[in-house]
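Bumping with the actual sequence this time:
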Amino acid sequence: MTQFIVNLAQERKARFELEIAGFCLQARTILRENVFTNLNQENIERIKEIVPVNDSVSLEELIDFFYSNNNFNT
C-alpha cells in the first residue's frame, strides 16, 4: 500500500505538465507556484525515505506509522 503512495506521487509529477498544458499561461503558473508547490522530486524522495515501503511491513506497523505525528516533522 505505501509503495502505491510513492508510485502515485511519481506518476502525478510525471503527468503534471501534460495535464495542465491546455490551461492558459497564467493558470499554469498559478498551479505550479501556488497550488502544487510540494509536487517535486525532492519531496517524493523524502516520502520514499520515511514511509515504510517494504512488502513485509504489517498493517499494525503501517497504522502506527501514519498515526504518529513524529514521522512528518522532518
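The C-alpha cells above came from a reply further down the thread. Helices lie at 2-20, 25-35, 41-50, 59-67.
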